[in-house]
Every structure is written in C-alpha cells, then in structure tokens.
Amino acid sequence: MGQTFLRLLAHHPWFQVAAVAASDRSLGRNYGETLSGQGGNQIDSRILDLDLVEPNPKTVGDVDIVFSALPADVAGPIEENFAREGFAVFSNASSHRMDPNVPLMNPEVNAEHTKLIEQQRRVKKWDGCLVANPNCTTAILTLSLKPLQDKFGLERVIVSSMQSVSGAGYPGVSSLDIMQNVIPFIKGEEEKVQRETNKILGTMDQPARIAVSASCHRVPTINGHLEAVFVKSESRMGPDEAIDAMRNFGSAPQELKLPTAPDHPIIVRQEEDRPQTRLDVDQGRGMTVTTGRVRYDDALDGLKYIVLGNNLVRGGAGCSILNAELLLSEKLIR
Amino acid sequence: MGQTFLRLLAHHPWFQVAAVAASDRSLGRNYGETLSGQGGNQIDSRILDLDLVEPNPKTVGDVDIVFSALPADVAGPIEENFAREGFAVFSNASSHRMDPNVPLMNPEVNAEHTKLIEQQRRVKKWDGCLVANPNCTTAILTLSLKPLQDKFGLERVIVSSMQSVSGAGYPGVSSLDIMQNVIPFIKGEEEKVQRETNKILGTMDQPARIAVSASCHRVPTINGHLEAVFVKSESRMGPDEAIDAMRNFGSAPQELKLPTAPDHPIIVRQEEDRPQTRLDVDQGRGMTVTTGRVRYDDALDGLKYIVLGNNLVRGGAGCSILNAELLLSEKLIR
Amino acid sequence: MGQTFLRLLAHHPWFQVAAVAASDRSLGRNYGETLSGQGGNQIDSRILDLDLVEPNPKTVGDVDIVFSALPADVAGPIEENFAREGFAVFSNASSHRMDPNVPLMNPEVNAEHTKLIEQQRRVKKWDGCLVANPNCTTAILTLSLKPLQDKFGLERVIVSSMQSVSGAGYPGVSSLDIMQNVIPFIKGEEEKVQRETNKILGTMDQPARIAVSASCHRVPTINGHLEAVFVKSESRMGPDEAIDAMRNFGSAPQELKLPTAPDHPIIVRQEEDRPQTRLDVDQGRGMTVTTGRVRYDDALDGLKYIVLGNNLVRGGAGCSILNAELLLSEKLIR
Amino acid sequence: MGQTFLRLLAHHPWFQVAAVAASDRSLGRNYGETLSGQGGNQIDSRILDLDLVEPNPKTVGDVDIVFSALPADVAGPIEENFAREGFAVFSNASSHRMDPNVPLMNPEVNAEHTKLIEQQRRVKKWDGCLVANPNCTTAILTLSLKPLQDKFGLERVIVSSMQSVSGAGYPGVSSLDIMQNVIPFIKGEEEKVQRETNKILGTMDQPARIAVSASCHRVPTINGHLEAVFVKSESRMGPDEAIDAMRNFGSAPQELKLPTAPDHPIIVRQEEDRPQTRLDVDQGRGMTVTTGRVRYDDALDGLKYIVLGNNLVRGGAGCSILNAELLLSEKLIR
Hints:
The structure is a homotetramer of 334-residue chains. The first copy, chain A, is α/β, with parallel strands linked by helices.
C-alpha cells in the first residue's frame, strides 16, 4: 500500500513527497533499498533515494499532509500524534475508522462528512486532523451502492467477495496457500464491511441502518476485488433504473474536478460476462468501479449485480489521496 | 466428465465397463487414442484399449446400464432412445432434469424419488429408465442444505459460487480467459441452481418452495467448487444445531452401505479458514462435501456458511454412479 | 496477434488501419463482433467498427501495406497473392521465413537484409514485396545475441525457454492443461529457433553457422517469454564486456528514430533476480528485451544469461511494424 | 519438508515416529498446533498430538534415527551433536553435503558410498553417523544421469530447471512474487547442482569431473521440478540406447526391495509432450523420476531430454528415508 501511495504521488499536481517514514528497523537506509521483491519498478527514482525517517512529528521535516499506510496494530497512536501536532493525516489503517469523531470517507459517497473535521478538532483538541478511508472491499461496495441508496433506499445488502492477494500486503499470502485454492476467510474483513458500510452510507451523526451481511474470500488473482452483491431496496427498483442511477452518478470530486477523481466513478458493462478482474481493474486509473450483470431476482425481491474495483487504488491509496484533495479544495486543510 | 466416470468405474465392485460410446468423429479408434492432453493418466489400460462404439442401443452390445456424459445439446434423444430400448440410463446432462417424470437425484438428499421410476415407465412406455443427477453446483449445495431443511425448514437460500475450470470440460476455459481473473458468469448455471434445488428438495410430486438466488463465478482453480451460502430457515436455528444436523446426517446410501457412498456425506470443519478448495476437495474420495464457518448473521436473521465439493465426483460422475447403485440395491434395475 | 497489431496501429503516426481482413466465417460482421473473450478492450473503437473483408487483393480497398497474422496453414498463398499484386506484406507466419528470397528480419539485428527485396522482386516477379519476422522466441533471443556476435563471434548457443500462454493465440492453451503445470513441448518451436537464428544472424546470402540447440517449454504465465541462454563465443568474452556490448547496442532503427524503435533495444539488469516475466515484459512498450544474470561459467567456457521479451510485441506485431517503418524510411516501399 | 517426512513416516513398516523436535519457539506445544496453513491434512493424528521437544540428544528420548529437515543455518552443529552422541542422522540440510567424510547419497545412484561411514566414524570419532541427501534439483538430475554415465560416460551436462514453490518451504515464496511470473534465480541453487552432481556421480574418494552448468528458475507450480537437460557423453549414444539404459535402470534399493524404493526409479515417456509437472509428479509415490523427449541434437553432438521429479519426496524426505533403509539393511546402523 505504501508503494501504491508513492506511485500515485510521484507526479501529483498538488502534492510532493517530502519524506518517507518507516519503522525503526529500516531507519538510515534509503527507501529503495528497503523494497523487497516487486517493489520500486514503478516508483520515481527521486523517491527511491529518500532516506527513511522516523514516523515522528518532530523529525519528519517540512510536511503538511501525512498519508498513512501503517499496519493497524501500530497506526493508532502514531497517527493521533501527528494529528495533534497539526498535520492533516489521511489513514488507510482500521484503527480510527469507527471513531465517531473521525470521518470515514469514500469521497464520491459521503463528501459531506468532511464537516466532522470541525467537531473533531474541538473534541480532540487537535491542531491537525485525521480522515480515514474505508477498507478496500467496503470502498468498492459503497461506491456502487450509493446511487441506489439515493434513488431507492437500501434495506438489505448481502455481499460475497472474491479478493486478490495484493489486498494482504507483501509478503502477505504465501503462494503455497493460494495457488489453485480459494481461502474463504480474511481476518476481520466481514465485520469491517458490515460496520463501515453503514457509517459511510449514514449521515455525519448517525450510521445508516442497512442490514449488511458479508462473506469474504481470497482467490488467486493479483489485483482487483470482485464482489457479488444482492440488494433489497426500500422502494422497488428495476435493473434499468439501477443502471441509469449508476451511470449518471457523480458528486463533489467530479464537480470540483479533483485531480484523482475519475470522470466516471461507476462504469456499467452490458456484456453478460463482465466485469472481469483482469480486464477491468484499471478503469479510471484504478479509481472507477465497474459493475455488470445487474438483474432482477424474484427470490430476493430485489437486484443482484457484480462490482469490481482496484483494491489498492480505489480501495486504498487513491481513495486517501482523493480525500486529501477534497479537504484541500474545501480549505479544511492547507 | 467421461474420464471421471471411467476412472471411478475402473475397479467398481458391481459394474464393469463393457463399452465406451462416442460421437461419429471418433469411431473406429480406441478410447485411449482419442484422449487429448490430460487424459488417460488415471484410467485403467483395459478401458483405454476399448474400441469406441456408436451411442446406439442396437450396437452397443451386452450392456445393462448406461452412464451418459453427453453434452446437453445431443443428450436428449440419445438418452431417451436407450431408456426406451430397455437400458437403465444415468445422465449428467441437463436435458431431462426438469422433466416431471424423470427423478433428479442426489442420492443422500432425495433417495425416495426413485419411486418416480414406476410412473416414468408407465407414462413414457419405456422398458428401461432414466435418472438424472443435478448440475455440479446444485449437487454440492443441496447435500449441505438437506439436514437444515429436515430440522428447520428453509425459507430463503442465497448462494455465491466460486467454481473451478474442470466444471467446463476439456478444452473448456482458455487459459487466457481465466489466469489472474474471475469471470462472473457461467452460462445457464444460476437458473439451473435455482430450479434444480427446489426439485431435489421437494417431494416426488411437488418442488419445494424455497426462494433460491444464485450468483455463479469462475475462479482460477482446477477442481472443486466452493460456495458461500446464506440461509433463512423457517424455524430458528443456531450454528451449533446446524453443525450437529450436518455432522449426523446420513441416509439410504449410508444405511445400504453402497460402494460409492461416503461414510460421512458432510464433514464440518471448525477452523476459521476451512474448507479450502485445494485441501478439502478429495474428502471421501470426492463424494463428501465439507462445510465450515457456520455462523449466525443478524442481517440475515439466519446462518451463513461455506460448502465445498468435488464438482467432478459428487457434482457429476460419482453422484450418477451412486444413483445406479441405489436403484440396483432397490431392485428397480438389474 | 491480430489484436496486438491493431492495438499498436491504432495511433500510429505513419500508418492508418484501412481494412481488417479475415476468414470467410466472419465476413459481413464488424471486427468488434468477432472478438471473443478478452478482445477489444484496448482497441480503438473506430477499428472495432470496421466491417471484415476477404483477404483478397482485389477487394481489400485502398491499402498499401498488409500486416499478416494469418495462421501458417493458410498464410502462404494468400500472402504471396498480395505481394504479387503490388502490396508490401509483413508477415508473422512461418510460411515464408526460410525462403531464401524473403528477408527474415528482426530490425535491430539484420536491417541490412532489406537489400534482399530487390532480388526478391526480380526472382519472384512481384510488384509488391514480402518481409517475414521471426518466431517470438527467436526474435527475443537474436536481439540479445547480436551485440555478442558482433564483438566476440558465436560458436554455440543453447537456449531453454519458459514461454507464456499468449504465444499460442486464443483460445490456445486450455486452462486444464497449463494451470500448475509445465508443458515441455511446443510444436515446431525448437526447429524454428534453431533455423531462424542462423538465418537472421547470417548475411543476406548465407546463414550463420552457429550451433544452436533449443528446448522450449510452456509455463503458466500470460505474457512474456523468458529464456536461459548458454553461449560459447569464438573469442573470449567476460561478463562485463558482454554487458557493455548489450547496453550500448543500437542500430538502424534507433539511428533513424523509427516510431516503434525503443530507445534501448536491450536493457541489462544488475539485480541477482531479474529480469522477471511480470515485472519486465513491457519495457520499451514491449519492444525492449531485458537481460540479466550475465555470468561466466567454467563448464561452458562461456557465458550464461537470462533474456526476457514481450512475445506479442517484440516477438510479433511490433517487430513486423518496425520492419515496415524501416522499409518505408529506406524508400523500399511507399 | 518436515511435514513430508512425517507424512511418509506415518505408516512406515520399519520406522516409528517417537519424537518431533523443533526450535525453542514452539516448545511445549504439540506438533499439530504449530502447523500453519496447509499443514496437518495428511499427517497421522498420533503424530500431530506429539509434544515438541528440543533438538537435543539428551532429551530426545528413546530414538535411534534422526531425520533432519532443519534450515541450513542451524543444522550444522545440531546434526553433528546427534551423530557424536550415537544417533544415525539423515540430513536434508546443505551444511555437511560437501564434507569429504559425509556420504552425499541418492540411493539408486551411489549406494556404494555407504562405505564412507566407517571412515567417517574413525575420522570424526562419532558413535553415530551422518548421511546427507542432495539438494532437490540434484537428486532428480543425478538419478536420470546415472544410467547414461554408466553406459556412455559423461563429459558435459547443461541443465535449466523450472522449479515449483514447494521447494522454498513455507511460507516461502510470496504469491505476489510468483503469480504470473518466472523468477530466474534461486539463491545458491546453481552452485549446489554443479558441486553435488559431481560428488554423487564420483567415487567415494573422488568427485567426478563432469562439466556441469545449471541455470535455475522458479515457475508458478506447486510441486514438482522439471529440468531441461543437455548432455554430451564420452562415447557416442543415440536416443534409443539412452532410453533403454534409463528404462532398465535399477540398483541396490530395488534389489533389496527397500520399502521406499520405487519399482522403477526412472519412467521414460514416449509422448511428445511429457513429462508434465502436474501429471507426472507423483509417479512411484514421488520416488520415481519421469523423463521424456530424449532426442539427438547436432548442435550439442549429444542428447537433450526432460526430467521431472517430486522435489519433496525424491528431492528430499523420500531420499533421506531410503538412505536410512539402505544403511539399516546393510547393518551399518540399527
């Protein structure tokens, strides 16, 4: 995830990478040296040459914005520390996602949650701020659900995910575990999807009350999470109306023409066998989710459809960066 | 599928392979010569040496039972022809599955449907008979559902499948289509699961009225279909009761100790990350399905669980052979 | 391969796709409709809308250059027909590669073979011309060998290839054949590598006399052929000299700044574990080959190294297009 | 590798697993609890219940034979310690393989090296003994070479390996590193193949003097190492003679009918596309290597062929156990 951040930030029009922080173990080496295996191929050489610094507000240097790809078990206090000391922190970790004073944002879905920042500063007495983005599966799911919620209301959502190995980081999943295999378990993932979906689709003050049930599975693909979604809406919706709602969807990031915002947050494919992980994962440079097979189902009295998204970009670093762009354009940070 | 039949029949205690029939194209060659690629490795050499014959009741020789792995587009009339001429036909094709006079049987689930045979002979005026087995995904699903239906009644079943490439036959799925990919579509599969599940779980005369919704997906595994199942039962069931019901399940094939019947039709794993396709696909020589992650879900007001089965054995040839054993032991055929 | 041609030609600065020809079966439909599975995603929509025409010089319309991705079993007479009728034909098929009057060209390696065109026209009495490009494995191999041949002379080359499934076309290799497998055989491939390498590395009139031995294997990768090469040179070469020769290599296509020519035909990696198929296949938009692990070996009294190339681009369509650019810039065609 | 030992020993007619030793970290837990991921499925439950003990001759209990799957960085002193204290140690580690007083044995290839044991005890003043088995790639290679060496003499051997991920242990290779990829580097492997081949194919006192050159590559397969071999022999050999020599090969383990010895150490396939990793890896319960495509090559003035073996069994635990059986049957240990 750290690598995806640095790839996306390398030529960003508004942001410049000033420092890369890491755990003690890597201090004193430059970033490029610490990359194992896959790393570095797509990262700017200027960034590879940066010396790694401590994740410490005192020593990190002339920095305004902190993007955090820290593991959840250490992210909590470090991120708070930066927020307290005046930095704008955008976090991929799960540590603060359910904190009622931390906006959990998927920018096209709940841009209005930025208003929580003011309350956050007041309650937490922070000079900076902290914004979380959702877990990858949730980011992809909620983007596809938002236009349906707006038009028809949502009563029940059942989702079965087929997630790629890049979602588990590096080295992450052993090849011996996943080749020719499906692992029907990803620790904590189902709970995250169920909780975070309601926070994102709710108001700033109140989570939504959608009955969400998730079953999460790891499949042998490299990048891209595909999800089978079964939806019961409050008012009746047909497939054509749902498709129209998805196709025409766009919100603040598109209106503000933010640099990382895709022109179309949702692409709907009409072929009977799309979206497919390998073919559609990079739509909108990874920021667009692709849906397809939107169909009515008697047994559900609702719709079922497929949604695919890039778990590293829309489901992670890209979402975080778009959040930062949004806050900057709303002058909530500088 | 034909190869799986021949592998399972090679050393069967009751049956002996007397002839292998195939399409015109292959006539006059022996079976082994027609096997491309993968074939033959596990098939008895005596069978490989058999000359291929026409699928014609007149010329097939001294045969009592016909196992059909014909493609659905040609199976219909050929299978009927054999049944009319006095052969006991056990078919994997979808052609006759929904015919109200043809039992659609997953032996542990609806052994009592064998009684349809008498009616079939009367109505169709056949000297022989025709028994169908379900599509692979349905065979695996219904076996796991049966103990729950018996104890708690079933109201709604939602299933999301992750199916291996062997389900599509040979050459079947191109490597370019499935490597690093999920294809969220298998032609006709969802309709089959929805229809066949109710026929199998119904009475001989009347399909069940369970709301079944399926979403079927191809993933890059070789053998084994894994399914995420979400169930709402009629009376309330907890995970422990469901697990007990599955664990203790067995029926006619076990009581009769039929040669192909597994000791335990359902194995329930307690580990948080099982069943897994590669690790569990061959349980009970492919005749056992393995479930796991049986858990209660508020959003469903029901249970969700994972079931895995061998699509070629329980989901195909093994199921067909077990049907033949059942009819033979009930003296419905000889 | 046809798709790779159309992807590369979609925005070519010199060429415009005027017609797409195909076998009878597809006539009357537009190109996009005939693409199965994977196709079309990266191809310009203007091209997808073209009606397919017959591969016939009379009816193909206002066309100067013909790129042929026909299968070898039909390519021969069709390509000759076009060449006779005045078209410049650039062929990927193996049909004419060993014809002494047809240049077999890997542009950076043997640009001077273009002089054969004059002789070809005289002998064959063709108004047009025909240029072949080598088989994919050979194209990648010979590009890496050329700087060594120039500096040190080549006595013996042993090559063991690990080839991806895209080299076999679509649908090509069945997933059941290649998942979790290595297939140590690709029909005709070893003979092609052995023959074509000497033709390309020879003079216009005379093949080289290098002892070439190939063993070709299919591995489960999507795109990119990786080759282990063992070389005995005529004069002694050390790894550093070999690396220098590769690094500094460039020839006519680079000097002429042809649109498809990569800045660096050969990139040499210094890491101990590179090149790797997935990481390096798209270097130079697929036109650059990447070498690595150049090391001396006592047992060979020579060097061994790894070379990786994009089998669809350098090993096929890109090579063909670069040949056309070369002939055009030399005014051998117009 | 430890797991493969325990799977093979679970029902061994001569040996019984009395203790499982492991690093400090796991002490006090039973073996089954320490198995991550894949483990345990095929291991006897009695063994899974054993408490892990220290790898210490004093505390290991009533044990005669020690099979060591320790990592090379710790194996050295621990194994020596056991040998000194009177245990018969059979080691998979590379630590002592090149020690001139330690037999490096692939039982069918150099059974006569057991005579080194006497010298070992004298020189090292050990009450027990230590026998090493070769690295996996070498075990497979040397078994296929031995009949050729016996009949024709060997001058030069070039080998290019395509090795599966199980060779790297667990968790071993990250899925992100190997999916859709070939990694042309395995640390230390080429040197091991080159050295160990000559020790095994030499006499007890003197390594052979074959020029061996290896290039080793990791491909995305689970189990089975496939090797392309190019051989120049001392006296001329044709493919048919080589095939005959391989087919008829057998030695002490077969004559003594040792329990782990396969009936046929080498199977030669005649199909043009065999052996294949997935199809042939379990021949002879993993103890047989399969060769194919034995063909003459002008450029080599020799033969090339393919050999495939099970890297965990023939290339590891099975080889070690067969060594123990051999020493026991020769009464060198008890």
